Amino acid sequence: MPIVNMNVNGNPVTGEVEGRTLLVQFLRENLGLTGTHIGCDTSQCGSCVVHVDGKSVKSCTLLAVMADGSEVTTIEGLANGAELHPMQQAFMDNHGLQCGFCTPGMVMSALDIVNRNGNELDENTVRKELAGNICRCTGYHNIVKSVTAGAKAMGD
Amino acid sequence: MYEFSYYKSGSVEDAVEAMNKAEDGKFVAGGQTMLPTMKHRLASPSDVIDLGGIAELSGISVDGDSVTIGAMTTHAEVAASGDVQAMIPALAQLASGIGDPAVRNQGTLGGSIANNDPAADYPAAVIALGATVKTNKREIAADDFFTGMFETALEDDELITAVSFPKADSAAYMKFENPASRYAIVGVFLAKTGSAVRVGVTGATPCAHRGMRLEEALNSNFSADACDGVEIPVEKMNTDIHASAEYRAHLVKVMTKRAVAACS
Lengths: 156, 264
Fold this sequence. Notes:
The complex is a heterodimer. Chain A folds into 2 domains: 3-77, Beta-grasp domain (Ubiquitin-like (UB roll), Roll), CATH 3.10.20; 86-155, [2Fe-2S]-binding domain (DNA polymerase, domain 1, Orthogonal Bundle), CATH 1.10.150. Chain A has 5 helices and 5 strands, in the order E-E-H-E-E-E-H-H-H-H. Chain A has helices at 23-30, 86-93, 103-117, 123-129, 140-155, and strands at residues 3-8, 11-16, 49-52, 55-58, 71-73. In chain A, helix 3 (103-117) crosses helix 5. Chain B is of the alpha+beta class. Classes of the chains: A alpha+beta, B alpha+beta. Chain A binds chain B through residues 2, 18-20, 22, 41-44, 46, 49, 55-58, 61-63, 65-66, 68, 109, 112-113, 116, 129, 131-133, and chain B through 1-6, 8, 28, 31-32, 35-36, 38-40, 48, 50, 52, 76, 99-103, 105-106, 180-182.
């Protein structure tokens, strides 16, 4: 079976996988990083979004072997000890989650939005850019508020 | 997903050799269509040959009046490219509307046109701009490339290396998208060079095609009104839960008119 090596949240990891092992399975089952969720089987919901070499990807639609040699960041890699990342804090402050299932993907997508669009985000940009993340509770209004506030806090 | 053997290719030759050795191999580019298809067990290749490690297949270059985009260049890279935005802004805009940001970071031009989904965006641009598809074996004209639903002129061991898009005087892509998947219910790419108009239509029929009747009308009178008298054959249109054949036929005209307005 193929061996993969990658750097996950700053830690070098190695593991034996099948060719068909998805990156999300590798993260959850081999590494125990269960913050990355699997919400659908159709690459549409975005709850599995992680960053691979600095870019957001759906980890349910990437083979672990395809990410061999990559730098991967998951939701577990954001907080500094007990101190939340400003984007996580913004979700908390703005009630940007209800059941919380989509939240890890929302936060990882939000950081990608900030990386590409900067710290001053308008509501339309955020709504358009979150097209690939679905909230089953339909809590979009506060999610959008959280992303906008989190983006701003990251620039302060 | 069924089991398969995975192979990471280091070069085009290496990938083709692996394909020739495989019992029922498939190339994977970004995997944004192929992996979901395999997860649903609608495809079960014996061997998956990954093109992700082949650096020479990525990148964008401008040569005179055309822009050449490597097959493994992602939608996000095309959308953000200053060269594409300067040469063919409609192509950058098309790429920026495929799927969602995470899909665009992974999905590729070559993967999209090799798969030839009836509702994919890129085929409309390849057709309307009269692009040339470059492979490891030959160059294929846009008009000869898309041969049927999920079918192309590519042979089993033939690999797209790049697509060369000639610049148009003006061009526009108008898509009526499915709000959940962002696939085109109908998409029309219109390119005008001199007085010659080419219309590429996707989403409407089982395979993207040239809107010859619309082209004829627009060649003699480049105005949105000229589309009114064109008959769109309803019997050739797709029909599904998202849109009936009649609705798609109507959308072909509406999207073309919007594209004409954007180019005027």
